[in-house]
Amino acid sequence: MTNAIPASAGVVQFRGLLRDTRRAGMPKQFFLPKAERAYGNELGINPSVDYAAYVRAIVNTKVTRNEVFGFKLMSWYLDDFLARLRDAHDFGNSTTNDMELLCSAFPGLRFVRIVRLHKLRQALSTARALQTGLWKVQKGKSILREPEFDPDLIEQSLHEAQRQEKLWEDFFRRLGIKPFKVEYEKLCQDYERTIRAVLNFLNIKLPTGARVGPPATTRQADEISRMWEERFIAERPSACSAASG
């Protein structure tokens, strides 16, 4: 079984929760261009020389004991990833549509899409992470610098969040499928129920009595985020109206 997990928000903790079940693969960005070199070295394969061999090796080795493989994709390198799969020639050619191409490379493919309904709060988190260099809050992690309220950066992050969501919507519309949708807000409210729903969609069973614990990462939202949200709404009401619309 193979499962893809495209995502745009809350992906770090969601990915970790799936991995911690030890039944849903170990979803990471194996096909992120800058990460492929390290994985290729680990496998003894040069992705730029034989991409098809790299894909197969990743699928065959990065699995859990129940033979489930999972990977994470982000919208900003989706098209490049599809192009490299097609250029490998082992999974399809110029006439092969995207769904056939992906299913050839990843048999049994299923999609889980992560969305954050509150786009402004997503933008606030992104703007903050861009400044601090801290994309997930964990004990012992240090920041590059203290974050400062930057309405231009927040609005830019808001537009980018909207753009990425449209890319995924267009992608799934083109494929003619409806992915299983995970809402970040619901994930934060009830980790276990959300993860169990995903596993049910993937036809993956947990051992009897197994529980899904809280993530190792911590939500970034705090008093700073709340203050920024109130200030941005007051200073850029038009941007907020466009986002909610």
Descriptive account of the structure:
The protein is α/β, with parallel strands linked by helices. The protein has helices at 11-20, 33-43, 51-61, 78-87, 98-105, 119-132, 151-175, 184-189, 191-201, 223-235, 237-244, and strands spanning 2-6, 69-73, 110-115, 180-183. Helix 6 packs across helix 7 (151-175). The radius of gyration is 19 Å and the shape is globular.
Blueprint (SSEs and pairs):
Elements: E1 2-6, H1 11-20, H2 33-43, H3 51-61, E2 69-73, H4 78-87, H5 98-105, E3 110-115, H6 119-132, H7 151-175, E4 180-183, H8 184-189, H9 191-201, H10 223-235, H11 237-244
Parallel strand pairs: 1-2, 1-3, 3-4
Query: Please, what is the CATH homologous superfamily?
Result: P-loop containing nucleotide triphosphate hydrolases
CATH structural fold name: Rossmann fold
For the sheet with most strands, the description reads: 4 strands, parallel
Total number of domains: 1
H and E order: EHHHEHHEHHEHHHH
The side-by-side strand order for the widest beta sheet comes to: 2-1-3-4
Q: Note poorly predicted spans.
A: 7-12
Radius of gyration: 19 Å
Distance between the termini: 38 Å
The structural class is: alpha/beta
Number of strands: 4
What is the helix fraction of residues, given as a range? 40-55%
- Average pLDDT score: 86
